[in-house]
Write a structure and sequence with these properties.
heterodimer, A: mainly beta, 5-stranded antiparallel beta sheet, 11 strands, about 0% helix, B: mainly beta, 4-stranded antiparallel beta sheet, globular
Chain lengths: ~110, ~110
Amino acid sequence: QQQVKQSPQSLIVQKGGISIINCAYENTAFDYFPWYQQFPGKGPALLIAIRPDVSEKKEGRFTISFNKSAKQFSLHIMDSQPGDSATYFCAASMGSNTGKLIFGQGTTLQVKP
Amino acid sequence: KAGVTQTPRYLIKTRGQQVTLSCSPISGHRSVSWYQQTPGQGLQFLFEYFSETQRNKGNFPGRFSGRQFSNSRSEMNVSTLELGDSALYLCASIRDRGYNEQFFGPGTRLTVL
């Protein structure tokens, strides 16, 4: 119940295309869903996050879509660029009184020029 | 503001030894969390500290411990090192506002020989 399942494990997209990464969870107590981007040799960087009271959040080329009834959320990267090539992690946590994030297994994105 | 600082960046130890890792959070942040990142298990929560008190703990053996000081700096210690402890250890600085946005440091790469 504490798991967050992420797919696909790896993704190859052409420059200018749309990258889509999906995550699913079981625990309905989760109420905060961030996405992190990690480059080799670096720590994960917070990209964008959503709460279950909204169905979509957009920041620049990055959009989170959230489906509360299906217990799924996804990251869409529009106009993907080679500089977006990185590993992406979805995560979930419960409540404002915890810093415990449950992470998905990660998706390695390669954007081909 | 300066980001999260972790020291040292790299460590090589042998089995049976112990190690102490340090983390300085973003100025003004009172909470830190620690994660272990490995290729096989991904990102796993170790523990979280808020105002010098452990607020949450993950499913790791007692060989893993941590503490937080009055200036919010945190340390984690691993005793009796095992080969499987080789990992990237990440510290996150938590902004205590609503949903605990977490900002990761670059990590400490620990290799156990």
